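Readers of this paper often ask what the protein records in our data store actually look like. Such a record has a labelled line for the sequence and another for the backbone structure tokens. Nothing more is needed to write down the fold, since each code stands for a local backbone conformation. The record that follows is passed on verbatim for readers who wish to inspect the format.
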Amino acid sequence: MLRYWLAIVRRTAVAAVSVAVVIGAAMAGVLVSEDADAWPAALLQGTLAGLLAGVVLGVAIATSNTWHVRRTASRHGLTPSAAAAAVPCTSAFRAPVPAGTTAYQLTDSVLHALKKVPSPRIDEVEEFTHGKLTLVCASSLPGPVRLRISIETDRDTATVTMDARPVTSWKRLDGGASWSVLTVFEPHVRKAVHREAGGS
């Protein structure tokens, strides 16, 4: 969990520094406006106040997200890792398939396999076309996640790419929700493609 917490601190560092600069500058400006001759002390006090605000903000965000990822991972039988801090979460693999296997066949097999996974549950199928599958999962997650699966076939090889990210596009942290969806679903996607290819 410490590695995840540190990863979140690194991801929020720019925001924390920005807040620190704004608060520090505002406080220094107020103090200088009250006493123009005391600008060295005002600058020092503003810097310390900004630094304190930035540290408090960074620690609060990292701690809150760490708590969320622990709960989310626990619900899905996962062990949290620093990779859970990444948003979006992506994965790709290639698998041999019999000549003539279509992307639609593989997409259909993947959808059927993922519908059987008890959690996270698929709440909506946004897209299901030839080689394209987009799902939305929200149950047992800190926030809704959109999983996009793309499947391309070329002769005897299938290339599968997966992308999990928050439905709310501006979110840069999601308490491990995207990572959980990808981590739980990826093995089922691999098995579905392998089965369709004639594997045991």
Notes: The chain has a mean pLDDT of 85.
